[in-house]
Design goal:
Structural class: alpha+beta
Strand order of the largest sheet: 1-2-6-5
Number of strands: 12
Number of helices: 8
Distance between the termini: 67 Å
Number of domains: 2
Order of helices and strands: HHHHEHEHEEEEEEHEEEEH
Mean pLDDT: 81
Strand content: 15-25%
CATH class of the largest domain: Mainly Alpha
């Protein structure tokens, strides 16, 4: 039973942000997709994911710190005796994304057998090495999955069709505030076991977009406009994560000016949505003879670099 703090390489009092940072770094290094020829990396990946899952659960972390549960999330055995062996579930591929199995265990001894074993000398038939009770039915192992989500789907919380390792398909509802590295738990979708099925732990990977970028809960976009649109103003179509909208360009707009589209960003955890920030980029055509003749005969007023002291 490894210490989850040591597994992630963080201090016992580490903040959640530091735990998340350490997990992301190790998960990227150890993920089975990147270590197909190194089975030890897959085992280490499972250990790291289990440690992260425990420490990000405030109740489990507090119980571990008080010594009430071990590093696998199981109650510490009474009277200081160790727990029995815990089989590790094997990873199975899901449809369209990769998986690697891991589990938290869950052995519990029948109390009547404990006392009988201590004072009557009888050993249980369940396999505890301490010999003081039957082994309770073990819950099935958890399975870790990685799900790649398109940028626009993450921003709009579009449902994701997911095929699990057992071949079943579900529609996964993304949570508000979803970001790269967000983990979702699907109860009972892990490995089967005598004490019930384990869970599926889905780690979200938000894919980059070809022209949108994320800034917190906001979405940024560089929007090209023509010289005529910049000088004269007007309305132009601008893409958003929802659908294109008409954007009003003020007269005399310079490159770099940013306009705000309210409520066109990512959904926030506390409700509402971020905005879309549109930076206007004036597109000056090359080799336009009429434009060259106009500029050659035109003297612009003032010095556009005066504020820079040059």
């Amino acid at each position: 039973m490894a210490d989850p703090y040591q597994t992630l390489g963080v201090a016992r009092g580490a903040a959640e942000a530091d735990i998340k940072k350490a997990y992301r770094k190790l998960a990227k290094e150890l993920h089975p997709d990147r270590n197909t020829d190194n089975p030890k990396a897959a085992e280490r990946f499972s250990q790291v994911t289990s440690a992260y899952d425990l420490l990000m659960d405030k109740d489990k972390r507090a119980r571990f710190d008080r010594g009430e549960i071990d590093g696998d999330g199981n109650p510490t055995a009474p009277f200081g005796y160790g727990a029995g062996a815990r089989p590790q579930a094997g990873g199975r591929p899901g449809g369209g994304f990769s998986s690697q199995g891991f589990e938290f265990g869950g052995d519990n001894a029948d109390m009547s057998d404990i006392f009988e074993g201590l004072f009557g000398g009888r050993t249980g038939g369940g396999g505890f090495s301490s010999g003081f009770g039957r082994r309770a039915a073990t819950k099935g192992g958890n399975i870790a999955y990685r799900l790649q989500v398109p940028f626009v789907d993450a921003a709009t919380l579009a449902p994701q069709r997911v095929t699990l390792g057992d071949g079943s398909a579900i529609d996964l509802k993304l949570p508000a505030g979803v970001e790269d590295g967000t983990q979702m738990r699907l109860s009972g979708k892990g490995e089967p076991g005598g004490g019930g099925a384990g869970d599926a732990i889905v780690t979200i990977e938000v894919q980059p977009h070809r022209f949108f970028t994320r800034d917190g809960d906001d979405v940024r976009l560089d929007l090209p406009i023509s010289l005529a649109e910049a000088v004269l103003g007007g309305s132009v179509r601008a893409p958003t994560v929802d659908k294109p909208v008409m954007l009003t360009i003020p007269k005399g707009t310079s490159s770099g000016r940013t306009l705000r589209l309210k409520g066109k960003g990512f959904h926030r955890k506390g409700g509402g949505r971020g905005d879309q920030l549109v930076t206007l980029m004036v597109d000056v055509p090359a080799d336009d003879a009429a434009l060259v003749r106009f500029v050659e005969g035109w003297t612009p007023p003032g010095n556009p670099r005066a504020a820079l002291g040059v």
